[in-house]
Amino acid sequence: MTTLHETIEVDVPVSTAYNQWTQFESFPEFMRGVESVEQIDETSLHFRTDIAGVRREYNAQITEQLPDRRIAWVSTDKPRNSGEVTFEPLGPERTRVTVELEWEPEGLVEKAGSAVGADSHQISSDLKRFKQFIESRGIETGAWRSAVDHGEVEETEEEAGFAANAPAHPHAAATPHGQTPPHAPVPSPQRPAGVDPFIDDAEPSDPVSHA
Fold first, then answer.
1. Which residue from 17, 70, 116, 127 could staple onto 95, CB 3.0 to 4.6 Å apart?
2. Does residue 100 belong to any structural domain of this protein?
3. Into how many domains does the chain fold?
4. Domain limits at 75?
């Protein structure tokens, strides 16, 4: 197994950096070699990669997730890999992002690339592109604030607090299952990809008729 460790500091709040990383389907926008990521369910992903001409597809499972602090994963088939991303606030507008990755190179090309440090350079370059991506936007493309413990989704304190204090909405009965109520600060548990949190896509209220 090869172990890699790379870090970078980004000029956005820790919640912005973390929220963006939860949008796994956006990875191809700043990860060279990742062709696509499909969100199968809340904790399951399907990757398609093309690195140094070696094309692969594999599934991965999110094993641990703690909002604004940590995301960990493991592949469920080959190529074998696992790792974690941690987020450390360095101030109100600055965050240290650290990636630790373990993977098992397969074949001559991957083993040769790992021997000369090509894989470490790839992660470093991806982090630099992530920095450019999130700093140029200044805001995440979406967010998912639930926690994951040993592969199981758990309700976070902020979600529990919102559920307990949220006033009843007059159209709640008509809100489709899984859709965020209007103006709710907690995103849908479906990990929306590419959804701007400033856009309220809830169903519009019925117009009020006047006599």
1. 17
2. yes
3. 1
4. 2-137
pTM for this entry: 0.72
Q: Which two tokens stand for residue 108?
A: 């001559």
Q: What is the CATH classification number for the domain harbouring 80?
A: 3.30.530.20
Which position has the token pair 């949220």?
A: 166
Give a yes or no: residue 131 inside a domain.
Answer: yes
Sign of the dihedral through C-alpha 152, 143, 27, 113: negative
Residue 97 lies in a domain: yes
In this structure, is residue 39 part of a structural domain? yes
List pLDDT tens digits, range 50-92: 876 778 899 999 999 999 999 999 999 876 788 999 999 999 9
Six token digits for residue 112: 């040769």
**Choice between 203 and 50, residue whose per-residue pLDDT is larger:** 50
Mean pLDDT, rounded, for 88-105:
90
CA gap 164, 52 in Å, rounded: 51
**CB neighbour burial string for 101-124, b if at least 16 within 10 angstroms, e if fewer:** bebebeeeebeebbeeeebbebbb
Distances (CA, A) of 142 to 22, 137, 193: 8, 12, 6
